[in-house]
Amino acid sequence: MGGSGYARKIRFEDIILVGAKNPVIINQHYEDNEYSGLNTAVQVSDVTYENVRGTSVSDDAITLNCDAKVGCTNIVFNNINITSTTGGEEHVSCNYASGKCSMSNPNVTCLYGQ
């Protein structure tokens, strides 16, 4: 049925990643074929990632794939250090996500409203 409601005031703190496939991911895009035209999404807000460090088996370190109508708000990154085990450059992608980032590798410059 799509999504409704909210996910808020969530904190991820003091996490050590060892070869994580998707280290940091928020995805408001999901589709149930029976209800694919509803355009609904769970509201995501006030999510903090603090003191997260370690390795990723993918170059995609941080993915914030939020809905154009609902978006993700007040997403905070502080003291993040995620490196790729492939030796490649870590990638960050944001769609319709707002918040702030400080002391982060990779830097989450794609957040709006910083």
Describe the SSE topology.
Blueprint: E1 6-20, E2 24-27, E3 43-56, E4 60-65, E5 72-84, E6 91-95, E7 97-105
Parallel strand pairs: 1-3, 2-4, 3-5, 4-6, 5-7
Secondary-structure class: mainly beta
**Which whole number gives the mean pLDDT?**
89
For the termini, the CA-CA separation is: 33 Å
> Taking Cα atoms only, what radius of gyration do you get, to the nearest Å?
14 Å
Fraction of residues in β-strands: over 45%
Number of continuous helical runs: 0
Order of helices and strands: EEEEEEE
- Please state the overall shape, judged from the principal axes of the Cα atoms: globular
Mind describing the biggest β-sheet?
4 strands, parallel
Say how many strands there are: 7
What would your notes on this structure say?
Belongs to the glycosyl hydrolase 28 family. Its main location: secreted. The chain is mainly β. The protein has one domain (6-29, 41-111). The protein has no helices and seven strands. It has strands at 6-20, 24-27, 43-56, 60-65, 72-84, 91-95, 97-105. The strands form two sheets. The protein has a four-stranded parallel β-sheet with strand order 1-3-5-7, with no helix packed on it.
